[in-house]
Amino acid sequence: MPAVPLSYAQIAEDLASRIGKGEYPPGGRLPSYAQIADLYSVSISTAARAIGLLRFRGVVVGAQGRGVYVPEKD
Amino acid sequence: MPAVPLSYAQIAEDLASRIGKGEYPPGGRLPSYAQIADLYSVSISTAARAIGLLRFRGVVVGAQGRGVYVPEKD
DNA sequence: CACCATTTGTTCGTATGTATG
DNA sequence: GCATACATACGAACAAATGGT
Predict the structure, then answer these.
(1) Would you say B70 and B28 are in contact if contact means Cβ atoms under 8 Å apart?
(2) Which residues of A touch B53 (CB under 8 A)?
(3) Average pLDDT value for chain A
(4) pLDDT for A1 beyond 50
(5) Average pLDDT rounded to a whole number, residues B12-35
(6) Residue B5 confidence (pLDDT) above 90
(7) How far is the CA of B7 from the C1' of D9 (A)?
(8) Mean per-residue pLDDT, A2-31
(9) What kind and span of H or E run contains B64?
(10) Which residues pair with B61 in a beta bridge?
(11) Angle of the B33-40 helix axis to the B44-57 helix axis, nearest 10
């Protein structure tokens, strides 16, 4: 991780890239907001924004109380 | 405007709709963050989020120090 | 059933940086 | 230099849903 934290858009890109590489496979669950915030050294609100972008793009689906998942199929 | 403020996604939808209707024509400028916040009775950060969504969708383009504009052509 | 911790999702207010005019 | 404006980040708070005890 860089000393200068990534922007929410860059975090979204990084996560999308990892999903594309199979790091988070279809049906798999992404780290929680708090974990992402910790992983990328950003606030929870910034982590939520990154996830929100992925959600809008359809890369992931969020389920309140459960987590954020990679859709099984397109 | 309703008593219950719209969400950032709904504000983005409303603005996109107005753009589609020609209320903000190609080449035209949208209200500033502060004006949108006032128009929809939300905070500036929520207004910025709505604009950010439109920007991601390509519906508008933002220019620092100048404003947010509707692209001339697709 | 009730209670509680976790998690998503949103809003707010403030602050900062950059760019324009 | 200054006012305006975009763009991002932060921390706090809250609602809603879930799942476990």
Answers:
(1) yes
(2) 56
(3) 93
(4) no
(5) 96
(6) no
(7) 20
(8) 93
(9) none
(10) B69
(11) 110
